[in-house]
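INFO worker-7 received task bundle
INFO bundle size: 2
INFO processing item 0
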Amino acid sequence: MKFSRLNMMLVILLVSLNFSSNFLASETESEDANKFVPEQTLSASIDKATTNTNFNGTVVISQNTGNSYNVLYEDAAGTKGGYDADTLYDIGSVSKLYTTTAIMLLEEDGLLNYDDSITKYLDNVPSDKQDVTIKMLLTHTSGIYVDENEDHEVTKDQEVNRILSSELNFEPGSNYIYSNAGFTLLAAIIESASGVEFEQYLTDKIFEPLNLEKTGFPNSDYLHDIPAVNGTLDGVNYGPVNNLDYGWYSKGYTDIVSTPREITYFFQALISGNVVSYDNLELMNSNQMDLGNDRYRGYGAEVKGLDSLSQTVGHAGVWYGGNTAVYYRPADEVLFVLTCDELVVGVDLPAIEVYNTLSTMYPVTSLDEEPIISREEINVSDTSYKGQTNSRNDITVDPLSKESTLSAMFDQLINLITLSFSDPTRALMIICVIAIIIIISILVIRRKRWHYLNKVKK
């Protein structure tokens, strides 16, 4: 097959540009993988952050690097140590995000709608609460609030009736009050909509699909042999968290037990769109109720600094098993998971205190440019954690025509030049690559012309 001069130049230019762009992409990915902070520095900072606190637990910090989550730090921290990332903790109100996820899965399966009245799923709802919707329960705007039931043997019907018979704090949807009881009603709604028990639904739809083998509920047989912290609340030691009391008095809003490793893995999968849709993730990370001081409530989640460089979304947990904090920063895609074995309510919340210190030490310094491939254009088939692999579905491209080849070549050139502005070394390398391309092209053309003139002379 004979090549024209134009074809020859195109081939040389494409090969050179492709090599250069791949080289720069790998260099950029390597830099991005460590763009937060080296582990050695983090270790020293965490030691400093936990000094003079009562934090005794585990810290896991990870970051989305494009193809997988890179675990930046994972170790015991604090006053006593000895708790690794496979130790069981009671995650407290972080459990609300698991309950929220279950509700979202039911919504995606068409088994409920967020604007449904609770009367569709619960019996004997008093007239003053018949306008309460699932959305209001998720966003703490239902007006329903009752204290924790001291009767830990209470049945489902007894607890639901106790909550529904309480006096409303305000007209549903008109204000905000943090409500554990609202999430107990959500647990009952999950059972009604799914036809199975709350624990079974979360196991079937969340724990098992994500291989969360050390996540579940206290007194589950499969958790008995897993090392667990002794939860301490207000100075009282309640023993191993896998043996804590568990029942309808706290169902839906707390009491899930898990390890820091599996908490991290769940939220990595959730953030990556492997559990619920991105539309539902946006509802978690949204302004459903403005709480003031740049704080908001999304569906189930706490949101701080909405649409700002310092935006975070997540939840904290306080229960008999200790104190947990899970927060994600969309700007640099860093996920913090801190678990602690003790706290004093209203006085000492060690996990939250240490998280606040770390986020001050390592603020987001700049927002990334618009990603070359957006989340909508790729399918994340799995996330990775330590030894677990992550693969994205291959993106197939049809054979290129001459016009599309020219377009692709031009796009590559623009991308390379754009990258060069951020780094003088890259700029110099781009100039060298372009110069080499021009020289090679000239030599090829001159060689072809020399052969042609010799042929004519003969």
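INFO item 0 finished
INFO processing item 1
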Amino acid sequence: MRFAVKFAITALLSLGLSTVVAAESNQESIPQPINVRTFQVILSHDEPENDEVGKLQCRGGLELRARDPRFGGLSGLDISPDGQQLISVTDRGNWFTAQLNYNRDGRLVGMSDTNMMPIRAANGTPLTSRADRDAESIMRLSDGSLVVGFERHHRLHRFTAPGRAAQPFDYPQRCGDHRKMAAPKPLPGLGVPNC
């Protein structure tokens, strides 16, 4: 009887501990609000009314400021196909997400719902070493997933969404006698992998 009671208590404690560990692990994928101030930027101070360069029309620009130590070093930038959401990666191993705000004329005037969360390795833990967390580029694939390129420890990882754990991403690798191989085709927005 004592053994059965000890076993039951041990099982319940183990279940409770695994629930706590799972909850802590899941918290890392929860967006963490960050206070970001935005300031509108014009295309040219010499000609403030001019919003065109050749055939391109400037639809607005923003300067971003935040006191949060996680903020800064925004490298890669992705805008959702509908133009409503911004997703960025940072040199410090974080995701930055925001909703873009436009005026009635369709000009970018600010952002809201600004959040940060750590970029997570395949095992679900946040990237911690400087060499591992230095995200540099981002590209949205046709299935909606995101590929992030890293410098220092050069690699590409695929993510189903910001805050989710990294997944393997197959891309052309140079191996063996590269003189006999065709050069890999550049990946749009990420360049040629240099393995």
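INFO item 1 finished
INFO post-check item 1: The mean pLDDT is 80.
INFO post-check item 1: The radius of gyration is 22 Å.
INFO worker-7 idle
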